[in-house]
Amino acid sequence: MNRLFLLVLFACSAFAQDRVLTLESAVRMALERNPDAALARIGSERAAAAADVAKGAFSPQAYLGSGLGWTEGIPQSVEGATPSIVQATARMPVYNRALRKRVREAEAGAEAAEYVSAAKQDEVAYRVAVAYLDFEYAVRRVELLEAQRDRLVKAADLVQKRVDEGRSIPLEATKARLDQSRAERALQTARGESDLQATVLKLQLGLDSGERLIPAYEELRSLSDLPAAASEGADRALANSAELRALEADVRSKGFAVEAEKGAYAPRLDFVAQYALLAKFNNFEEFFNRFQRHNGQVGLALQVPVFTGKAVSSRVVKASVEAREAQARLASRSSAVEIESHRLFRVLQDAESARSLAKLELDYAREALGVTLARFEEGRVSLEEVERARAIESQTWDAFYEAKYSLEKSKLNLLRRTGELAAALR
Question: Does the residue 15 lie in any domain?
């Protein structure tokens, strides 16, 4: 049974594919494959189609049919028209204020949906970029802990050898094995975290679970086009935010909806053309002075509302309330975007400071390790001191990577807020 399990495991690993990813390639892949981005694009296409449907109301419409029927007595109507062998009707609005405003409402709705799609793309780009950075950091941490574990294994062997030779007490060997076990435990936890982050990233990208992801370890993105001041970031966010542009388009759409409801009070004028091919068996000759087989008319149909009832005024009030609600929502989100951009700029400054401090601590730890190794070669320090210096260096590397990735996330988040993230990563 165990052999069969190992055989299946080997076969699965043999067919597993390795995929090397950069941040930019991950974002591009996500924008193409991510379901949320696809849904946003579909929503934009649906809104554009709805606008085309609304415009279609002003296109000429022609119908061809028949009102054929047998008549006993005076000819009556068939489906509201004179009994005829062939009927043709054409109609086109010439002036219809309500329909015209509905078209403008649909066009503004399509514009809003397009901005919503752009905002969703920025959101997806940010989410995938953060998932990639988390994955890359987790892999780096595994590599650091593997190197640390290997050093502790060698150190434990050396200590055990010294104990066997009687140059150290057994307690030193026990402590070395304890340090080794702690390193193994930390490595096991880090590998589990790395596997989890890889799974999250693959789900975001729509990749097969059997693929093995490998970070490219490129020098992190050249995101140099960042605001130089908090006020600049706020101005760029207010100017470029797809979310705010969508809300502005929604305000316009709601305004056109109000005008469309008020259009029910306005007169309507339609162009109308009709043709009918009549038959004698419908008794036209018996009840009319003259029979004519081919008949047609062209003209304008005018309708002037005289009494519309309370329904129209109620719809106007409802549409007006929705328009005021859209304006209030825009004002609220504008303030929130400005506040958030100021906060994110402050977070970015803190992240830059933390990264600089972590770099100084790393430089100091590496220099201190070099001094300790030199003294060890001279026989002036013990192996334990060397391992302690190595452990400190490993910890500062970990802290440096954590600060570095936190800084990158802060940059990405600020660009997301200014509406420039997807363009920066493509």
Answer: no
